[in-house]
What does this fold into?
Amino acid sequence: MNFTDQDIETIKELLRDHGSDCPGADSDAVQALGEKLGVYQPELPPTAEELKRWEERAKDPMWIVLSQMMSSMNAHLAQSIADDITRDSPFLSALSANSDEKIGSTLRIRLPNDYTVKAE
It folds into this structure.
């Protein structure tokens, strides 16, 4: 398989835009391809200095308090979402399958030029 320079640039642009909106993509394969094309830098293992710094941070009382606070906030947020679902909030009810409410923009699908749309 031969790629033109434009094909390679397009693939590089796709790799630069790759993110959490691609849950089905194998992140390790994307990383390897990005490294091969020069888009990504190789992920190096942490150095001994970084590991030491992480250990010190994990023992820091302020870091422990911050970690507990974040855990508490996450638990509170999860409970708040659960309460909204049980209260049948307007936003979540609009997401239900039996609702005709529109959320977001119009979905556009690019079809081939020779595709014929049949009216029902």
